[in-house]
Automatic annotation (TrEMBL):
<feature type="transmembrane region" description="Helical">
    <location>
        <begin position="27"/>
        <end position="49"/>
    </location>
</feature>
<feature type="transmembrane region" description="Helical">
    <location>
        <begin position="140"/>
        <end position="160"/>
    </location>
</feature>
<keyword id="KW-0813">Transport</keyword>
<keyword id="KW-0915">Sodium</keyword>
<dbReference type="InterPro" id="IPR023171">
    <property type="entry name" value="Na/H_antiporter_dom_sf"/>
</dbReference>
<keyword id="KW-0812">Transmembrane</keyword>
<dbReference type="InterPro" id="IPR012336">
    <property type="entry name" value="Thioredoxin-like_fold"/>
</dbReference>
<feature type="domain" description="Thioredoxin">
    <location>
        <begin position="441"/>
        <end position="621"/>
    </location>
</feature>
<comment type="function">
    <text>Na(+)/H(+) antiporter that extrudes sodium in exchange for external protons.</text>
</comment>
<keyword id="KW-0050">Antiport</keyword>
<feature type="transmembrane region" description="Helical">
    <location>
        <begin position="309"/>
        <end position="331"/>
    </location>
</feature>
<keyword id="KW-0472">Membrane</keyword>
<dbReference type="Pfam" id="PF13462">
    <property type="entry name" value="Thioredoxin_4"/>
</dbReference>
<feature type="transmembrane region" description="Helical">
    <location>
        <begin position="198"/>
        <end position="215"/>
    </location>
</feature>
<feature type="transmembrane region" description="Helical">
    <location>
        <begin position="172"/>
        <end position="192"/>
    </location>
</feature>
<feature type="transmembrane region" description="Helical">
    <location>
        <begin position="410"/>
        <end position="429"/>
    </location>
</feature>
<comment type="similarity">
    <text>In the N-terminal section; belongs to the NhaA Na(+)/H(+) (TC 2.A.33) antiporter family.</text>
</comment>
């Protein structure tokens, strides 16, 4: 079924773009974009603390209470930020970790082993370095300050100093940081929580278990979960354990999955009912149907990711980064065991531990367990991990009093530019390597997980382009879908690449495109007479005219036997072929059109020519690396 016809007459350019991104990739871009806001908040805090006498500290120590009858909670503004709003930040961290376990590379649990070990070692060695400076001294109790990477800041600065870093390196950093955050929050709960009260803790655990039961029972309404989650937070606070732990636990409990076709079809039916009778009641049902089609993880991520990154984390920076800096303070702090211990723990300990453990595990497993990115990316991940902020500041506030608290904050702030400069150097040197070596250094040679099920079969699939191409682009499409129509000239532009083959698989969305199924059958009937691609191309030029009479006329224009064409359209062989593609879409997690796969990996992001060409270029490089490995 291969067609290698010339595509030189295809449309050369398009202005059309459509963004379809996973929440994880939205998370990565959001964290990168928010880094500038966070840095601005840190600078503002330093300016405020050094130019307005004591107003900075007096403002953040303002008491605010919330009363519930005879009971209430009273915290100062800094505590409301650190223990209240930061709970939502750790909720987002938990959501992203759960998504990676359910849908990302970590669904292969073996891929969690190495970053988990790197994350633990990346905490243990910095603690050891800190204690080497402070053991036996007053600052030794603050060892927890030196262990936790700031995910948001590290991702943001990695995007700035390592502009060509592959996504896998950033995912490796996210995984290491999640392990880091989980262990750090356990440390806060065990080592830095005084006077733990058991009854409130039991209430918090019981309320959390209730959320798990509700998830298992299929309860989806956020209004039902909200009071239970507030009980978890309040009871954890009352127990004496920092309540940010509750945010991470709730995030990890929120399952992630792609919308199912049945759920989407039900949502379409509800919307169609509203379109026919636009009443408030039907509008509410339609909205609920749309929301139900999304996973709890997806809904919570979309709601809180931007708020966390652009508001909560910068507000945390504003509330905690302000320290009074003068010549006397700098002279004492730069010689302080606490400052030096924190600085070298991050700038030296983090990269040594993360890179060293990754290399050790790879060697001990004889390459069976190795990073999903190249070694330059792993080293750059380790160096950029050498900065702490959110969790480190939380622990510093719990562990230190002045002047050690300001010394610790200075060490953390100094580590940020130092880690950024070292990371920039790593990627600058990598960029000077010869192109093949640079590709391996950044991308690595680990086999990627395949999302496409089943793999392409030239005997069964409709294939266009050279059989020996190193890159295969698969599209699940619908002949009546306007977005597929806009993607068609893009595909034709891509097919000018003589090292690319293109595969079409049917996904007629009959709930919104009533002629899509018949059009798919028409393409298959034309294929039985050897003219699949001609019918495919013709129907995309006439998407508004796909009724049976139109299809028969198109068969005549293509010189097909119209009687045979009509009979074949209704035969089981055509319908079974489309059904097989629908089953493949379900197995591959596809529910909308157009959806693209490049060498078996699902493509997320824009569908414009430049974005797809770059994705194809990276896939070709990976294919060549894999071929050399074999």
């Amino acid at each position: 079924m291969t067609d290698t016809t010339d595509q030189s007459d295809s449309t050369r350019t398009t202005r059309w773009k459509r963004r379809v991104a996973t929440p994880l990739r939205d998370f990565l871009s959001t964290e990168a974009g928010s880094a500038g806001v966070l840095v601005a908040a840190i600078v503002a805090a330093l300016i405020w603390a050094n130019t307005a006498d004591s107003s900075y500290e007096s403002f953040w120590h303002t008491a605010v209470s919330v009363e519930f009858g005879s009971r209430g909670i009273e915290l100062d503004l800094r505590e409301w930020v650190n223990s209240g709003l930061m709970t939502l930040f750790f909720l987002v961290v938990g959501l992203e970790a759960r998504r990676e376990f359910d849908l990302g590379d970590l669904r292969d649990r073996r891929r969690f082993v190495l970053p988990a070990l790197a994350g633990v070692a990346g905490m243990a060695l910095p603690i050891g370095i800190f204690l080497a400076f402070n053991h036996g001294h007053a600052g030794g109790a603050g060892w927890g300050t030196a262990m936790s990477t700031d995910t948001a800041l590290a991702l943001g600065l990695l995007a700035l100093v390592g502009r060509h870093v592959p996504v896998q390196a950033r995912l490796f950093l996210v995984t290491v940081s999640v392990v880091d955050d989980v262990v750090a929050l356990i440390v806060i709960a065990v080592a830095y929580s005084d006077d733990i009260r058991m009854m409130p803790l039991i209430v918090a655990v019981a309320a959390f278990l209730l959320t798990l039961v509700m998830v298992r029972a299929g309860v989806r309404s956020g209004f039902v979960y909200l009071p239970v989650c507030l009980v978890v937070w309040g009871a954890t606070l009352e127990s004496g354990i920092d309540p940010v732990v509750s945010g991470l636990a709730i995030g990890l409990a929120a399952a992630a999955y792609t919308p199912g076709r049945n759920d989407l079809e039900q949502a379409s039916d509800l919307f169609r009912s509203f379109r026919e009778q636009p009443t408030p009641e039907l509008a509410r049902f339609a909205r609920m149907g749309l929301l139900r089609s999304l996973s709890p993880n997806d809904r919570l991520t979309r709601t809180w990711s931007g708020v966390s990154s652009y508001l909560i984390v910068p507000l945390f920076g504003l509330a905690n980064a302000g320290i009074v800096i003068d010549a006397g303070f700098l002279g004492d702090a730069l010689a302080s065991r606490v400052t030096l211990g924190v600085f070298f723990a991050y700038v030296v300990g983090k990269p040594l531990a993360i890179t060293g453990v990754s290399a050790l595990v790879t060697w001990l497993s004889r390459g069976r367990v190795r990073p999903a990115a190249g070694w330059a990316s792993v080293l750059g991940t380790g160096t950029i991990a050498g900065m702490g902020f959110t969790v480190s500041f939380l622990i510093a506030n719990l562990a230190f009093e002045e002047p050690e608290l300001s010394d610790a904050k200075l060490g953390l702030l100094l580590a940020i530019p130092a880690a950024s400069l070292i990371t920039w150097t790593v990627f600058w040197v990598t960029g000077r390597l010869p192109r093949p070596r640079k590709a391996v250094a950044l991308l690595g040679d680990v086999e990627e997980l395949i999302d496409l099920i089943p793999e392409v079969d030239p005997e069964r699939d409709h294939v266009r382009g050279p059989a020996g191409a190193t890159v295969t682009l698969v599209e699940y499409g619908d002949f009546q879908c306007p977005y597929c129509g806009r993607a068609e000239p893009i595909v034709r532009e891509l097919l000018t690449d003589d090292d690319l083959r293109y595969v079409w698989r049917h996904l007629p969305l009959t709930d919104v495109h009533p002629q899509a199924q018949l059009a798919a059958q028409a393409a298959e009937a034309a294929g039985l007479q050897g003219r699949f691609w001609e019918m495919h191309d013709l129907m995309f030029t006439r998407q508004d005219h796909l009724r049976i009479a139109d299809l028969l006329r198109y068969a005549g224009e293509l010189g097909l036997d119209q009687d045979k064409f009509h009979d074949d359209m209704m035969q089981t062989i055509c319908k079974d072929r489309i059904t097989a593609d629908l089953e493949s879409a379900d197995l591959s997690g596809v529910s909308g059109t157009p959806t693209f796969f490049i060498n078996g990996r699902r493509h997320y992001g824009s569908y414009d020519v430049q974005t797809l060409k770059e994705a194809i270029r990276v896939a070709r490089v990976r294919a060549k690396i894999a071929a050399k490995r074999r």
